[in-house]
Every structure is written in structure tokens, then in C-alpha cells.
Amino acid sequence: MVMSVADAYNKLGQPEKLQGALEALTRMAPDSPEAWYDLAASHAMLGQNPAAIDCLKKALQFNSERLAKNPKSQDIRQTLAADGRFAKLRETPEFKALVH
Predict the structure, then answer these.
(1) Max avg pLDDT among 22-26, 64-68, 74-78
(2) What is the residue range of 27's domain?
(3) First to last CA, the chain
(4) pLDDT the model gives residue 42
(5) The CATH number of the domain where 8 resides is what?
(6) CB under 8 Å to 25, separation ≥6 — which residues?
(7) Which of the ends of the chain has fewer CB neighbours closer than 10 A, N or C?
(8) DSSP states along 40-62
(9) What burial class does residue 21 get, using C-beta atoms within 10 Å of its C-beta: 0-12 exposed, 13-18 middle, 19+ buried?
(10) Domains in the chain, number
(11) Which of the 8 DSSP states describes residue 13?
């Protein structure tokens, strides 16, 4: 249900409310790489770079843990480089440190 609400806020162009729904999602699924990834993207879109980097670190950590258990699971690192939501962060040293 939370994902449905988040999707609705996204479609309605309400980024602050979308961020609230994504924060709720990370509380409900705290080890979900995708939840943290989407929250990181939300922060990045709102220019909240430190929060975006923090959430992205968590997303990549949980992603690595999941891949260690199941190497065939989705690797969010593959989408990160091309995800336009992170365009403003790509040139920052913090972002570069995460993806290299």
C-alpha cells in the first residue's frame, strides 16, 4: 500500500509527499536496497545531497549483502550510473566514491 501511495505522489508531482511515503517504506522494509535507493533519488531530486548520499550508502550496502546471499538478484549498481535522478550528484566526490 505504501508503494501505491508513493507512486501516486510521484505521478502527481508532489516530491515532498513522495519523500514522506518513501521514508515510511524504509521503516517498513529497512533492509530493502530499492527502498533506500528510491529515497536517495528523492533526496537528490530535492537538492538534499547529504541525505541522498547517506541513503545511497545504505542502498548499496543492502544491495551488496543481498548479492552475497543471492548472486542472481538484481544489482542496483547497474542502474545507478544511468539514473537521471542522480545527475546533479554524479560529479561530487562522495558520489564518485560510492560508484567506483
Answers:
(1) 64-68
(2) 2-99
(3) 35
(4) 94
(5) 1.25.40.10
(6) 2, 3, 6, 32, 35, 38, 39
(7) C
(8) HHHHHHTT-HHHHHHHHHHHHHH
(9) buried
(10) 1
(11) T
70 CB-near residues (< 8 Å, 6+ apart):
none
User: What pLDDT score does 59 carry?
Assistant: 97
Buried b (16+ CB within 10 A) or exposed e, 56-89: bebbbebbeebbeeeeeeeebbeebeebebbeeb
Grid coordinates 533519488 are at which residue?
Answer: 41
pTM over 0.85: yes
What torsion do the CA atoms of 79, 81, 86, 92 make, to the nearest 10 degrees?
A: 150
Largest CA distance in the chain: 37
Q: What is the pLDDT of residues 38-62, one digit of tens each?
A: 999 999 999 999 999 999 999 999 9
SS3 80: helix
Angle at 19 between CA 17 and CA 21, to 5 degrees: 75
